[in-house]
């Protein structure tokens, strides 16, 4: 279709022909539009892709959220209260403490699971070796 329009009107930009053909779906209508208007409007350039942001990768959540287990206020295991603070700054701090608490709880859970699996594997190995 583009070649047909270019055969009749070779000076038209291909992008303008393609845009008009997509809009009209007809070679005849596109040629009529170009002859009537003295050309076809050139479509705007496609939007540029957003700049690629490189995601910073972290080895663990402790690093990602900059949590120091020794210095943590929630290291004692006490869950921060679930209250609505008066100022945005206090709410942000409460959110940080709750996030820190959840990360530490998840870390503790995974460590217990690893210890449990290690002990279980040890016992199974010894039970099989006595058989």
Automatic annotation (TrEMBL):
InterPro entries according to UniProt: CUE
Pro residues: bias regions: 41-52
Coiled-coil annotated spans: none
GO MF annotation: an example: ubiquitin binding
The CUE domain, residue ranges: 1-39
Sequence ranges of Basic and acidic residues compositional bias: 79-89
Source superkingdom: Eukaryota
Pfam families: CUE (PF02845)
Feature: compositional bias, Polar residues: 53-75
SMART domains: CUE
Sequence segments annotated as region (Disordered): 33-89
Protein name per UniProt: CUE domain-containing protein
Protein's organism: Syncephalastrum racemosum (Filamentous fungus)
